[in-house]
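Aim 2 progress update. The chain analyzed this quarter is reproduced below.
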Amino acid sequence: MPKPVIRTFQSDMKNLVQDRLRRMSTPGTIQRCIIATLSAAAIFGGVAVPAGSAAADDPPADLFDSPAAEPGDRAELPDEVDAISAFLRLRQWTDNLAAPRTDDEAARLPIDDATGVSVILRRAGRVVGSGTDLRGDDLMIRRAFGLALAELLGSETYRNLGESTQETLGPNLTLELEVAGPRRPLPGRTFEHLTAQLRPGLDGLALQHDGRWSYAF
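Predicted structure tokens:
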């Protein structure tokens, strides 16, 4: 990758970390922040768009359960076949603007080595619904999609659409599914050192500050 692109990526990630810390901090306090990487595989339906982000308050219990991986180690990524299969099923749910009940076996979409997912729905490039789930089980995609769908269907934008447009909206939405793999510690004393270890297109971030967590896929 050309050096100017890498420098831009590192600068963007530094700004992201600083922005998240500002949002998570109480004015006048300085507290330790734990940062980990999320090895992720992203799948896009329609045109490729930038990765989204989401926040959560509950930290995963096994945050540092995985050893550091060597660059290019495919074993650290979620299973690609499972991820593609899950995306195709999720695309059907999106087209229909509906999903199976969580107690229905069809709602289970397992992905080996996945610890979290983010689902983003876009219309004409604009985010109209998003959801994140970090429980690591085979229902996390269903829950994340449920959050994204609820945001869409409850929005003023959707309510203002004509009935015919609502009926045909699903197939015209761009679907983005991002799947996080194992979480790994990201040591470093400076933002520059931290961001220099990140791999564009592969790594996301998990930040803990003052007992709260924020995630960026």
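Residues 3-24 form the longest helix (22 residues). The first strand starts at residue 33 and ends at 45. These observations will guide the mutagenesis experiments scheduled for the next reporting period.
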